[in-house]
Amino acid sequence: EVQLVESGGGLVQAGGSLRLSCAASGFRFQNYAIAWFRQAPRKEREGISCFGSHDGATYVVDSVKGRFTIFVDDNNKTVHLQMNDLKSEDTALYYCAADDGLGCPLSRVLRSADFLSWGRGTQVTVSS
Fold first, then answer.
1. In this predicted structure, what is the pLDDT of residue 101?
2. pLDDT tens-digit profile of 53-91?
3. By CB distance 3.0 to 4.6 Å, which of 16, 68, 73, 105 could disulfide with 64?
4. In whole angstroms, what is the distance from residue 4 CA to residue 111 CA?
5. In sequence order, which residues have a C-beta less than 8 Å from that of residue 30 and are 6 or more positions away?
6. Phi first, then psi: what are they for 113, rounded to 5°?
7. Measuring CA to CA, which residue among 35, 31, 33 is closest to residue 68?
8. Which of these, 86, 103, 89, lies nearest to 8 by C-alpha position?
């Protein structure tokens, strides 16, 4: 069973930075994907980044590109989301999600339904 534990959320002023981490374990397959999603109050869950173990590829979606970066520890099991120049609209509950057996979607459209394992989330609050 895949287990995911997020850490690193908190309260930060606009323009500040935070680094989220997701420690993953329990994969059965060599090929898996670890993604970050976020959900703001009264909004749909939004996928924002993905790491695919098959080729080590990472990406972030256009809405956060230039401010958010995803990188992975050498063990390929801990994924970090570096968030810079945070804005009030980045306030959300951030989730780590994983799909064991498949990589990141080639379309780069991250859908909640494609990820079967989820962490409990870590809150990020950006004050203006």
1. 87
2. 998 999 999 999 999 999 999 888 999 999 999 999 999
3. 68
4. 18
5. 53, 54
6. -65, -20
7. 35
8. 86
Residue 97 burial (10 A CB sphere; 0-12, 13-18, 19+): buried
Tokens standing for residue 83:
């968030």
The SS3 of residue 112 is: helix
Residue located via tokens 């534990």 = 5
First to last CA, the chain: 40
Residues in the chain: 128
* CA dist list (Å): 127 to 7, 12, 17, 36, 52: 19, 6, 12, 21, 33
Using the structure block, give the residue that is written with the tokens 């990188």: 71
Judge whether 15 and 85 are in contact, CB under 8 Å.
yes
Residue 24, strand partner residues = 4
